[in-house]
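hey m, so remember when u said the tokens were messed up on ur end? i reran from scratch. heres the input so u can diff it against urs
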Amino acid sequence: MGQYIKDTAKNVETYLIDRNLALLKNTTIPITPNYTPEIDLSLELNDLDSAYYQSLISILRWIA
């Protein structure tokens, strides 16, 4: 299972690099304390990104 998790992490890193994104470094919490979802104006995911997100959820469920 360890190799599966490493491969999944590498896949996520590649996915983010391809989109000029990156995970936060040296963080202890998953979201900033001042985040206010009621005023979040982020765009919804397109079909491709939505399918990728759903595949990550499936991978996490399998790992758990």
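this time it looks ok to me. The longest helix spans residues 2-18. if urs says something different then somethings off w ur setup not the seq
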